[in-house]
Design a protein that fits this description.
zinc ion transmembrane transporter activity, two-stranded antiparallel ribbon, membrane, Zinc transporter, ZIP family, 4 strands
Length: about 290
């Protein structure tokens, strides 16, 4: 691998990059998304409990981000790589993967909007649920790096990354904030210190860099799996949006006027539109 220096900035030449270096870059981006989970604890450094209204907005924001990313980011890319049938197969497998993963913690109602009497089982199961959810998110990050070193992209810290990878990395990082919040609520109520909660939140996201590396290695070494892989990531994220995040938002707004539907819709719209704007901005930068 060699590097070029332009205007005092050191750029990495990806054309001669080794697989180990590529995997390292993917791992670092996946780790950044995992660290973003810790940001979900930030509100509790200011207040002891977050109002239900803001919880609903945050769940709506995450819902909009997931829907937009899966439908317009990953599905769109998948259709450019293969047949619709391949994309559908991948999506079905992705949905099945998350469903079966959730069965591991079956019987636990995923509704971390309020905790009056928290027991250790609730704490453990909440962390377990969010840790399992990190796996498909990490896979989405890894698959998005498939064009690393081949197509023009967006320069980040001297490394030219695929535009799709930048988009997915930003999307998953933002998405991880309400996931970190979901973990923080029962842990804070259980009496755990805020910094320990940050540690547990980040721990729940650690499958993301691992999943990202595994997914990238898979798609970069095997031929003809791109469409299926993108479909898998899209199906998994879409399932999370509809089956997990939407019910969590609805449950959090039960005590609000009109059951919190205006707040949920507003958050969803903001997340959906903001994600589309991020896509447009990154694609514009990537073509400069």
């Amino acid at each position: 691998m060699r590097a070029e220096i332009d205007h005092g900035i050191r750029y990495v030449d990806l054309a001669s990059m080794t697989l180990a270096t590529e995997l390292s870059i993917v791992f670092i981006v996946g780790l950044v998304t995992a660290l973003a989970t810790g940001l979900g604890v930030a509100p509790f450094f200011v207040v002891r409990q977050l109002a239900d209204r803001w919880l609903v907005v945050l769940w709506g924001l995450a819902l909009g981000i997931l829907l937009s990313a899966s439908l317009f980011g990953l599905v769109g890319e998948a259709l450019t790589e293969g047949a619709v049938s391949h994309v559908l197969i991948g999506a079905i497998v992705g949905v099945a993967f998350v469903y079966l993963s959730d069965r591991v913690v079956s019987g636990y109602e995923f509704a971390p909007h309020s905790v009056s009497a928290v027991d250790p089982r609730t704490v453990v199961l909440t962390v377990a649920v969010m840790t399992i959810h990190s796996i498909p998110e990490g896979i989405a990050v890894g698959v998005s790096f498939v064009d690393l070193g081949s197509d023009p992209g967006v320069t980040v810290a001297g490394v030219e990354l695929p535009a799709l990878a930048v988009f997915v990395g930003i999307t998953i990082s933002v998405l991880n904030v309400p996931e970190g919040l979901a973990i923080a609520i029962p842990l804070i109520a259980y009496g755990m210190s805020r910094w320990k909660v940050v540690g547990w939140a980040v721990f729940s996201g650690l499958p993301q860099p691992v999943g990202a590396v595994a997914a990238y290695y898979f798609v970069s070494t095997l031929e003809g799996v791109l469409a299926v892989s993108f479909g898998f990531a899209a199906g998994a994220l879409f399932y999370l949006a509809v089956v997990e995040f939407l019910p969590a938002g609805l449950e959090a707004g039960r005590s609000l006027p009109r059951r919190g539907h205006p707040e949920l819709l507003s958050g969803t719209a903001v997340g959906f539109i903001a994600t589309l704007l991020i896509v447009a901005a990154i694609e514009g930068i990537g073509t400069v």
